[in-house]
Design a protein that fits this description.
It is a single chain. The protein is of the alpha/beta class and about 475 residues long. Helices cover about 25% and strands about 35% of the residues. A six-stranded antiparallel beta sheet has the order 20-21-22-29-24-27, with no helix packed on it. The protein has a five-stranded mixed barrel with strand order 6-9-7-8-12. β25 (about 415) and β26 (about 420-425) form a beta hairpin. α3 packs across α7 and α6 crosses α7 (about 220-230). The chain starts with a strand and ends in a 6-residue tail after the last strand. The relative contact order is 0.11.
């Protein structure tokens, strides 16, 4: 009997190997890296046309909640639930939380567990594979998607297929999981056959998964149950109890359940999959020109071959280069050989040790009301360009250490300053003294753009004392 499919979209991860485009406050799943949509949106869009598929459950970092909500809203998707993790605890607790949420209404539903940051070039083949996996999962097995290997990759774990599953072509019992192998061993796997890459995607019945997790890792299930029981509603989100979730062991669904269960199965998935784990992966899956180059943005190449070049903010010219990755943003530039693309994570770790900010955020920082971007900064001053979306507003707040001067560039601003509320139009301005309560609102149906000049002894974003906030921020 067919069961309803509930997608579980795992939105965690920092995407540090895709720096400088991917950063902690704007990681790769929320970026348009391969199409006009973000990776999260592409993940959701390929579910369209999938039979018996319900609204998704998102599991995400609380810092990214407004990004995820807005990107779903842009597609007209109303999620079944948005679960906020106070800290990352890997995939086993995340899937457990989603399974507990699904069991409220439908414990027999099949959860389709999908990372939000993968690339699939053949959505139709993906949907066909999902239907196969869901049918097997409805019978009580826990099903992994085994990616048909195209080369002896050493960066993925492997799944060895065991006995075929009756009446289900390209489906097998799982013989064993294999850690990331050496190249020699990976070549042997491909020569032997019967091995798949572990794609990190699963189809599993919610009640069956929870039963197996309770048998194999009861401490994870108990902590996740406590976190869900203590969860509180925060606008459209469900915020898991912090203390209970902090006590939960961190482990992946692979290690916690799939490697030990007797219910494991794998379906062959041949659908143009990539985990988008590095810039070289984007080169491999991108549309290459006659010289093997992949470009995005305002790029000009001359006598260049097998390069990946991305220009996000400025023009980039490349002359006579081979096998390079060149990625440009408005505040950072990465140049690396493609063979060293996996090592970009070391750059991010170095920036973190030096307490720099280029790995944390871009000069444009997104907020639920719009965004701001740094234009200039110096001793005791900072200049920002701000955009407030139609119908949105900043919190009622004050600053203890800085004053602000706002100049409207376009649109209409409603400004609260102390006990006064005024309306400012293009080329009009106002001054907010230190310690004065204030709020900026856009009550129109057009974007509001303005320049903010800050001055004072301290200009950090943590010098904000909020009194009212429609987005529920502390």
């Amino acid at each position: 009997m067919r069961k309803r499919i509930i997608p579980v979209i795992l939105c965690g991860g920092s995407g540090s190997r895709l720096w400088p485009t991917s950063r902690r406050l704007l990681p790769k799943q929320y970026l348009p890296l391969v199409s006009e949509h973000t990776l999260l949106q592409d993940t959701l869009l390929r579910l369209r046309g999938l039979e018996d598929c319900g609204a998704p459950i998102g599991v995400l970092n609380h810092e990214h909640r407004f990004l995820a909500a807005e990107q779903m809203q842009e597609l007209g998707i109303a999620p079944r639930a948005m679960l906020l993790e106070p800290v990352g605890r890997n995939t086993a607790p995340a899937v457990a939380a989603a399974a507990l949420q699904a069991c409220i209404d439908d414990p027999d539903a099949v959860l389709l567990v999908l990372p939000a940051d993968h690339l699939i070039l053949d959505p139709a083949a993906f949907r066909q594979t999902v239907q196969k996996a869901a049918a097997i999962a409805a019978g009580g097995l826990l099903v992994a998607f085994g990616i048909a290997p195209t080369h002896p990759a050493t960066g993925f774990g492997y799944i060895e297929a065991g006995e075929p599953i009756a009446n289900h072509p390209d489906a097998f019992r799982i013989q064993r999981f294999v850690e990331k192998p050496s190249e020699e061993r990976a070549r042997a796997f491909l020569a032997q056959g019967g091995y798949f890459w572990n794609g990190g995607m699963f189809a599993l019945q919610a009640s069956v998964f929870l039963e197996e997790l309770g048998r194999l890792r009861p401490e994870i299930l108990a902590a996740t149950r406590a976190a869900m029981k203590g969860a509180v509603r925060d606008l459209d989100f469900l915020r898991l109890d912090r203390e209970a979730f902090l006590a939960c062991p961190a482990d992946s669904i692979d290690y916690a359940v799939m490697e030990h269960t007797r219910l494991g199965a794998v379906v062959r998935a041949d659908m143009g999959w990539s985990d988008v784990g590095s810039w070289s992966a984007l080169w491999e899956t991108g549309r290459q020109d006659a010289s093997g180059n992949v470009t995005r943005g305002d790029v000009w190449l001359h006598d260049a071959s097998r390069c990946y070049v991305r220009a996000d903010a400025r023009h980039v010219s490349v002359l006579g280069a081979e096998d390079l990755v060149i990625v440009e943003t408005d505040d950072a530039l990465l140049v690396a050989t493609r063979s060293r693309a996996q090592d970009v994570k070391e750059v991010v770790e170095r920036l973190d040790r030096q307490k720099r900010s280029e790995h944390v955020s871009h000069t444009r920082v997104y907020r639920p009301w719009g965004y701001y971007e740094s234009v200039d900064a110096g001793e005791r001053f900072q200049v920002k360009r701000m955009m407030v979306k139609p119908g949105q507003s900043l919190s009622l707040q004050l600053h203890r250490k800085r004053a602000e001067h706002w100049v409207v560039v376009s649109g209409t601003a409603t400004v609260t300053r102390g006990d006064e509320t005024t309306t400012l139009k293009e080329n009009q301005s106002t001054f907010i003294p230190v310690g004065t309560k204030h709020r900026l609102q856009n009550k129109t149906d057009a974007p509001l753009f303005l320049i903010e000049v800050q001055s004072g002894s301290y200009l950090g974003e943590d010098d904000i004392e909020r009194f009212e906030d429609r987005y529920g921020r502390a």
